[in-house]
Write a structure and sequence with these properties.
It contains twelve helices and twelve strands. By secondary structure, it is α/β, with parallel strands linked by helices. The protein folds into two domains: 116 residues, Rossmann fold, CATH 3.40.50; 184 residues, 3-Layer(aba) Sandwich (Rossmann fold). A seven-stranded parallel sheet has the order 8-7-6-9-10-11-12, sandwiched between helices. The protein has a five-stranded parallel sheet with strand order 2-1-3-4-5, sandwiched between helices. The protein binds (2R)-2,3-dihydroxypropanoic acid.
């Protein structure tokens, strides 16, 4: 029997590409270029499985291609707002993602953003590398203490809880959160976390607001001008979730007016395009969507996709089936 044809839209961890090549008739994206709409459509027409990543827009236009051969989209990432699930279902496609394996890695990155912006570490490094440092002095680059402060989480899923555990146990932070679908009591038992009835309650109390909700229409611009005005002027905003949760123009305005103290951002509204205003600000930390970017995690994510498509082609329900 011939092996299923698999198209991988970007370069993946080499060990995962090796496994895919061994098990399937695999087509890799050798030069790692972002695929256009017509390339994605051709992939859907010519392969049994297409393996996209969170930077491929698999929308209704892509999925509206005629003569689709593919039966599964094995997406490499936990977020799935880049895929139109309704259109995928209508096109007869199963869609899977990669939860769990990137939880700790992304939580580590959220803490990196929080610490870096609060302690002015990015700014300090630029200062030193630019040859501007003239020596220690009591008033030099005073940042904001993290230990003992209040961390407000918007969304209390796996990644938020992993951030809360680091903050509570490592930095003695007080944890507050809002989630329309709150976790079970036993899942937050060791966090001493207080549930807030609304995001506004979190905004008003938190010294650090960290976003952990999915992207998409339900959370689009949740961080608006009003939300930013509701935060303390001394507070910091951390985003390792999705760029479109923040109204970036409103954030630039709030930072420029001193309505909040700073921001740590790993994701952006129009990424990879970054607002020139943000780039010019010293009180923001900007990272290129590195949440899950470790060798170990990227391998685990890829292997989770392999597990999902293996199950699918064996006639089983993949563990991470979304539709
Ligand atoms: C995801 O998996 O959704 C991340 O944004 C990429 O690490």
């Amino acid at each position: 029997m011939s092996r299923p044809k698999v198209i991988v839209t970007r370069r993946w961890h080499p060990d995962v590409e090796a496994v895919l090549t061994e098990r399937y008739d695999t087509q890799l994206n050798q030069d790692d270029h972002p695929m256009s709409v017509s390339e994605l459509q051709d992939a859907l027409r010519s392969a049994d499985a297409v393996l996209p990543t969170v930077s491929d827009r698999v929308d209704a236009e892509v999925l509206g291609a005629d003569n689709i051969r593919a039966r599964i989209l094995g997406s490499n990432g936990v977020g799935f707002n880049h895929i139109d699930l309704d259109a995928a279902k209508a096109a007869g496609l199963t869609v899977t993602n990669t939860p769990e394996v990137l939880t700790d890695c992304t939580a580590d990155l959220a803490m990196t953003l929080l610490l870096t912006v609060a302690r002015r570490a990015g700014e300090g490094e630029r200062h030193l590398r630019n040859g501007e440092w003239t020596g220690w002095r009591p008033t030099h680059m005073m940042g904001t203490s993290v230990t003992g402060k209040t961390l407000g989480l918007i969304g209390m899923g796996r990644i938020a809880r992993a951030v809360a555990a680091r903050a509570a146990h490592g930095f003695n932070m007080k944890i507050i959160f809002h989630d329309p679908y709150p976790p079970k009591a036993e899942d937050i038992a060791d966090l001493n976390a207080t549930q807030c009835a609304s995001p506004e309650e979190v905004f008003a109390q938190a010294d650090f607001v960290s976003l952990h909700c999915p992207g998409g229409k339900d959370t689009y611009h949740l961080i608006s001008t009003a939300a930013l005005a509701a935060m303390k002027p001394s507070a910091f905003l951390i985003n390792s979730a999705r760029g479109d949760v923040i109204d970036e123009a409103a954030l630039v305005q709030a930072l420029a007016n001193g309505e909040i103290a700073g921001a740590g951002l790993d994701v952006f509204e129009k990424e990879p395009a970054i607002s020139a205003d943000l780039v010019a600000m010293e009180n923001v930390v900007l990272l290129p969507h590195l949440g899950s970017a470790t060798m170990e995690t990227r391998k685990a994510m890829g292997m989770r996709v392999v597990e999902n498509i293996d199950a699918f082609f064996a006639g089983e329900t993949p563990r991470d089936k979304l539709v």
